[in-house]
Structure formats: C-alpha cells, structure tokens
Amino acid sequence: MTTFPRVSSLRRSPFAASALLGSLLSLGAHAASADAPLRETAPAGRYFDPTGDAPQRAAVATYVEPEDVPLPTGAAVTHAAFAVLPVAGVWGASRVGGDTRVAATASQTAAGMLLGAMPSRLLFFRPAAPSPERWMELETVAFGGGLVLTPPLAALGTWGLGELAFGRSQHTGRAYVGALAGAAAGTLLAVITHEVLVKLSKPSARGGAARKLIGLGFIGAGAALGYQWAGGGPRPDGHTR
C-alpha cells in the first residue's frame, strides 16, 4: 500500500529552504563587506594598475617612484662615494700580480663590464607591477639568470683581453678561475650596492642608469683584480711597461 507524505511536512520544507538560503546570502554579504576595505585601501601617491580597465579583476595598486623628484643630498653623496670604489679597484688590480700597467687593468675591467653588461641587466630587473604573483615569479627568474650568467661572461671578457692584447699570463687557467671568482664577488657587491642606493634614493627614481653602471663597475673591477692576482702577471717575455 502506497503512503504519501504528510501535508504539514510538505508545507514546512519550502519555509526551511527559504530560511537557509536567506542565511547563506546574509553571510556572503557580510564577508564581502568585511573584505572590501582591504582591497580598496591604498596609500596616496602615483600608482600603476596592472589589471588595466577590466572590472572583473581586483586592482592591486603598486607605488611607482616619480622621475621628476631630485635625489636627496645624502643619496647623491652616497652615489658618488660608491662610484669611486670601482676606480680604486682598478688601481688595486695594477698593484697585484706583477703587472703595474694601470691602462692594462683599466682595459681589462672595461672588457669585463662590456661582456657582462647584457646579463647584468637581469640583476637589476624590477617590473613596474611587482605585486601580482606572476610578476614576482618573473623577477625571481630574471635575477637568478643574471646571477648565474654575469660572472662567467665578465670573467671571459677580462681574461680574453688580458691574454690576447697584453701578453699571456704566467698561469692561464688559474687566471680565468681568478677572474671568475673576482667577478662573482663583484656581482654580489653590485647587487648589495644597487639595493642600498635604491633605498636611499626614495622617493625619487632618478639615477637608475648610474646605479647600474656603478654595479657593473664592481663586477668588472672584481674580474680584473682576480685575473691579475691569480694569473701572476704576464710571462717574462711579455711587455710589462
């Protein structure tokens, strides 16, 4: 014998469903209202919106340093002080290894800077919108590539010019290893120096090219210093003056 549900239970079920639906909607509205100030709050200043005009995506405002603001006095002095250090490194390279030719070490430094210029740009790569996760991944990959590629190429430039143009060194293999070690140390110093100068330069974005050139000078000077120290200077039959 077939039984049918009671009329009272059929009447109560729509009311229960309506009450449950209303409570879920109220919870969703409360969560959205609580989360909205977090997405809309942003400090004052010039910002770059990486999402464009798409209304479906939440805009993540990212601060962009203005170009028209002059450098603070302390930052300008620090830039000049750090720029002297690679020059001192070139002079120091001429004092080790038995080769006192400053012009030779300066040329070797310039060759290392020239060959390491392209990969070193990855070391200082900063996207305009670093807040989204995709930009952070791109920045990390670029920095890692620059950290790996810059020392061997800078060392190759310094070592190649020293061996071809200024007489072969006494220890050719050790000379390249020394240039590589010096370029690696210079790369780490370049990254640290660049970040320090960026911190001191805020809120101005001026001097970006000078900061990169100073960092590149650390790399080239380190390669020249390592090359001269490990290579032992030119061979006795080469020109030393």
Helicity range: 55-70%
Mean pLDDT level: 76
Largest sheet: 2 strands, antiparallel
Q: Radius of gyration from the CA trace? A: 31 Å
Q: With helices defined by DSSP (H or I, 4 residues minimum), what is the helix count?
A: 6
Strand order of the largest sheet: 1-2
Unreliable spans are 7-12, 30-62
Strand elements, count: 2
- Which shape, going by the Cα principal axes? elongated
Structure explained in plain terms:
- The chain has 241 residues and is mainly alpha-helical.
- The chain has six helices and two strands, in the order H-E-E-H-H-H-H-H.
- The chain starts with 6 loop residues before the first helix and ends in a 10-residue tail after the last helix.
- It has helices spanning 7-40, 73-93, 102-123, 133-165, 172-201, 208-231, and strands at 47-48, 62-63.
- The chain has a two-stranded antiparallel ribbon with strand order 1-2.
- Helix 3 runs antiparallel to helix 4 and helix 4 (133-165) packs across helix 5.
